[in-house]
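Section 3.1 - Work completed
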Amino acid sequence: MEIPEQVKDIIAPNEKVLYVTKQKGSKLTSDIAKKLFPEMVILTDRRIVQIYPEGLFGGALKTTDYSDCPYERMSNIQLHRGIFRATLNITLKSIPLGGMANLTPENPSISDIDKNEAADIFRIVREILVKQETRQEVALVTVSAAPPAEMESPIQ
C-alpha cells in the first residue's frame, strides 16, 4: 500500500517502511467515519506509527494526527482475532523514575484490522522484538564476560 503524501514527512529519510495497512471498520456496525477515513498503521524498522484522520470533516480535509511506538519501548505484542477483524495490543516497558515507583504508560492497541494483515504485523513485530532481546542478551554477556582489570598493589 502506498503511503499518503500527508504522512510521508513523519517517516525519516533513512527509516525503512516494512508494512502499511488501514483499519477496515467493523462489519457489524456502520461506522461511516472509519470506513471513509480509516486509521492507518505503518510498520517501519524502528517503530509502529498510527495515523488518525481528525474526525469526519478533518479526514475529508486531509488533516491527520499520529502517534508512534518505538520497538525499544515495547516488551510484548498480542494478537486477538475476531471473526472478521483483529486487535493488536502492545505492552510497553515500565519507565524507571529514579528512586520513585516505576511509571507504567498506557498500553496502545490497534483495532479493526483485517485478521490476516494483523497476523502479518504480529509476526513482523514479534521477530523485531526477539532480535532486539537477543542483541541485549549478547551485549550483557559480552560485558559480564570481560575479565576484571588487574589492580596494582600499593606496594608495587
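Second construct:
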Amino acid sequence: MKDIFLQRKKDMLSKIDKSFRRKWDKKIISLCKKINSLENYYTTSSCSGRVVLMFDKDKKEKDLFIRIYHDLISFEKLKEDLNEISKKGIIKFKQEPCILHVACRSLDDAQKLLDKAKLAGWKKSGIIASKNRFVVELNSTEKLEFPIIKNSQILVDDEFLRIIVKKSNENLKRSWRKVGKLSNLLN
C-alpha cells in the first residue's frame, strides 16, 4: 500500500517556494532541514522572525507590506525608511517572532514535536488536526505591533524609535535562540 504521508512529504518538498522572498530565511534553514530529514515530519512553511512596515488593514492584500526586514534593524535604516514613506493613512510597525508549520505522520508524532518545542521556549504553539492530517504550528512569543505613521507623519520621536529598535533586535535574537534550542532537541 502506498504511504500517503511520504508522498505528501515528497510533493511538498519538491514544490517551488511561493513565499515573498522565494527562499528560506537563513536563521531557520538548518532547523527546517533537520525536521525534513526526519521520517515522520516535514515543514510546510516557516519564517525566522521579521520586522515589517505595513498598511493597517484587516485583510492580507497585495502590496500590504511596505518594508520587510529579516535581520536585525538599525535606528538609521528605520528612520531613513520611515522618512521615505509618503503614504496616506495609517502605517504599522510590526516585529514578528519565528513561526513554523510542521506536518506530522501521526498525532503521537505531533505531540512529541510540540513537547520538544515547549521545552525550547516556543510557548504559543499547538496541534492543528483535521481528518487525516496533523500539523504542529510553532510560534514564539516575542512580538511588537503598533501604528507608527499616520498621514505621512511619524507618530513617535527618535528616542522612542531607538527603544523600538533595541527591543525588536532583542526579541529577534531571543526568537533565534529558540530555533537553535529546538534544533538541538531533535534527534
